[in-house]
Amino acid sequence: MIIKGIQKLSMVDYPGLICTTLFTPGCNMRCPFCHNSSLALGAQDDSFIDLDELFVFLESRKKKVDAVCLTGGEPLLQSGVAEFLLEVKKMGFKTKLDTNGTRPTALAKVLEAGGVDYVAMDLKNGPEEYARTVGLTQFDIAPILQSIDLLLNGSVDYEFRTTVSATLHTKESLMRAGELIRGAKRWYLQAFKPGETVIDQSIKAFSKEELGTLLPALEGFTKELHLRGI
User: Per residue in 6-29, pLDDT tens?
Assistant: First the structure.
């Protein structure tokens, strides 16, 4: 289990709770809109966090934060995620996992181990647009569908989230994405925001008004639909 970075205090990474966010390196996607490009591209150096020191640090955070979020990169590329989250949960923290849904077997192991309280899964776009949206020439959506099924039919709380950009997303492609998670608890549309660390600097953002016009077409796919980051 490799932890590359840490955000000691976050008000946004765990819904309703103050948390510490841990970042794992490496990703099997190359989403053009990704802000964590150094993590996604797997930058290698010796700045990994010692796990023994990390647990000592987390012990010191018990009275300051309620939860720990494991994000990336893609955390489920790491070995030992289920065991790691279980140890964190045993310390008294609520635990959250962020994942792109490409590793359903690893996700199932995490869910079965009982060490995670909340899962946020990225839903990148409709099936036809998935490969382009994740920066790959080809993409097999079957693992995504398996991960969706695990969350829809499991007992762990969850959300689906889609970072939307004017370059990669349309109302129609988002409707196709909505069909994949029909009946889910909640779906967040996250506004893409340009920045220096974005992988593809040509990606364009929707305006607040444009994002608002998407909502009527997407209501009804999930029990809750929210805009985030506007």
Answer: 999 999 999 999 999 999 999 999
Q: Who's near 153: CB < 8 A, 6+ residues apart?
A: none
pLDDT in tens, 84-101: 999 999 999 999 999 999
> Three-state SS for 17?
strand
**Cα Rg of the chain (Å, integer):** 17
- Could you please state the CATH topology (level 3) that the domain comprising 5-228 is classified under: TIM Barrel (3.20.20)
- Say if residue 224 is exposed, middle or buried (CB neighbours under 10 Å; 0-12, 13-18, 19+): exposed
Domain residue spans of the chain: 5-228
Helices (H), the chain: 37-40, 51-60, 81-90, 104-113, 130-133, 142-152, 171-180, 208-218
